């Protein structure tokens, strides 16, 4: 199965690549390992709300409904991505796992659960949310309670009257704390004191700051965004503030069978610990190309690989473009990437699908 371009990943980044690729004459396919559309949004908690209004949470070509005062739910976001894929009839092939990628004779060879695919250009768009990161702690293997990552958390059901530790000072940590603290005894553990944005500021501010950094970089200038905070005060977090639960302490040292222990010997018994500690890029299928560095990332110039011609990486956060891991931000880098791919392939004989 030969294509001009293969995109790995059918979440928001892969769909946006498809939107711009469909405007070209290039043959392409999007390979996705999920059963349905939605990408990383399939693995978020039920009550999650975006912290930017609908109009600031849209992919190119199709506004999310709801206007400037509606902050979309997880389910609304999933429905939007499904509708987006259908509207543009994007060629997504699901439940295809890419196992290994090789390059020979100026052609990428993708070994997958569905057989061999080949292409002249390859885009990795698997996102930053497929490889959950849990820090290492002494004794974690003997802890007898429940250990979850935020990607595994769905709702506070089952946590009633339990002691729950929540680790991480980002938006996911604050939102999950806000919800779990209604039914459980919670302890919020953060590397540093959490920084909350003023109530009237939402994700639009964060995107604007990223855009200013992007424009400054293009102009060869330095831009330092204003430091107002990191956590958006969505309604659930405001409610938690009213209940006086937005208090955190610094990290513990190790686990015991039924407790976490700080360096000074203080310990607290817990039943559940939820790590809201982010993700690492999941690029193991590219290891055979020797492009993944010690941080689990690839060295890129914009989205283009510095090591392998014909390889691009889209939607992995600031190292592939400012705000590129967001719904509204990925369009900018995806468009530029498609332009680069078209230029790259214009001097090559294109394979037939």
Automatic annotation (TrEMBL):
Superkingdom to which the source organism belongs: Bacteria
UniProt signal peptide: none
Keywords: Oxidoreductase
Gene Ontology MF terms in the entry: flavin adenine dinucleotide binding; monooxygenase activity; NADP binding
InterPro entries in the cross-refs: Auxin_biosynth/cation_transpt, FAD/NAD-bd_sf, Flavin_mOase
NCBIfam families: ArsO_flavin_mono (NF040505)
PANTHER family in the record: FLAVIN-BINDING MONOOXYGENASE-LIKE PROTEIN (AFU_ORTHOLOGUE AFUA_4G09220), FLAVIN-CONTAINING MONOOXYGENASE
Protein name from the UniProt record: Pyridine nucleotide-disulfide oxidoreductase
């Amino acid at each position: 199965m030969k294509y001009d371009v293969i995109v790995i990943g059918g979440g928001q980044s892969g769909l946006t690549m498809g939107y711009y690729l469909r405007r070209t004459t290039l043959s392409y396919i999007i390979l996705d390992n999920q059963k349905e559309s939605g990408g990383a949004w399939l693995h978020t908690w039920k009550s999650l709300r975006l912290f930017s209004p609908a109009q600031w949470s849209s992919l190119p070509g199709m506004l999310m409904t709801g206007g400037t005062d509606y902050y979309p739910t997880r389910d609304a976001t999933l429905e939007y991505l499904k509708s987006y894929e259908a509207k543009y009839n994007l060629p997504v092939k699901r439940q295809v796992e890419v196992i290994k990628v090789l390059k020979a004779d100026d052609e990428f060879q993708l070994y997958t659960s569905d057989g061999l695919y080949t292409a002249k250009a390859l885009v990795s768009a698997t996102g930053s949310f497929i490889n959950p990161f849990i820090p290492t702690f002494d004794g974690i293997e003997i802890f007898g309670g429940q250990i979850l990552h935020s990607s595994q958390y769905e709702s506070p059901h089952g946590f009633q009257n339990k002691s729950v530790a929540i680790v991480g000072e980002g938006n996911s940590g604050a939102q999950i704390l806000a919800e779990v603290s209604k039914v459980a005894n919670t302890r919020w553990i953060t590397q540093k004191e959490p920084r909350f944005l003023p109530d009237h500021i939402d994700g639009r501010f964060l995107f604007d700051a990223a855009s200013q950094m992007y424009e400054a970089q293009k102009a060869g200038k330095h831009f330092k965004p204003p430091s107002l905070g990191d956590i958006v005060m969505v309604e659930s977090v405001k409610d938690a503030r009213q209940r006086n639960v937005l208090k955190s302490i610094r990290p513990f040292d190790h686990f015991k069978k039924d407790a976490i222990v700080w360096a000074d010997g203080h310990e607290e018994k817990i039943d559940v610990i939820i790590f809201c500690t982010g993700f690492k890029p999941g690029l193991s299928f590219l290891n055979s190309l020797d492009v993944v560095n010690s941080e689990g990332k690839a060295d890129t110039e914009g989205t283009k690989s510095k090591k392998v011609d014909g390889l691009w990486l889209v939607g992995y956060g600031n190292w592939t473009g400012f705000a590129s891991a967001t719904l509204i931000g990925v369009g900018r880098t995806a468009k530029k990437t498609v332009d680069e791919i078209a230029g790259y392939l214009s001097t090559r004989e294109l394979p037939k699908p």
